[in-house]
Amino acid sequence: MAEAPGERPISNESSTERQRGRATSVVVMQLAQLLATEPSSTIKALLARHVDDGRGKCRGCTLPQRGYEPWPCITSAAATIATVSSRLSC
Ligand SMILES: [Zn+2]
Questions:
Q1: Is the pTM here over 0.85, yes or no?
Q2: 3-state DSSP call for residue 67?
Q3: Can you give the residue ranges of every domain in the chain?
């Protein structure tokens, strides 16, 4: 039975992919902590810029080599967490 390209069972996820996911989570949390110290206007500006373009890509993240990043991007995720955590701490 042929498997569709790009589709992989979750059980076959490699340890490298798991480590990459964990590293991304750490980066998001560290960025969120950093952003939480910024004025809310800065976080709002980031959230306004890093939005879905309607095709699952971030309008704010364009890289010369890779084009648009998938949305939600790291910046959007971190800004969202920073918003929530700053609300909780008030
Ligand atoms: Zn983005």
A1: no
A2: strand
A3: 29-88
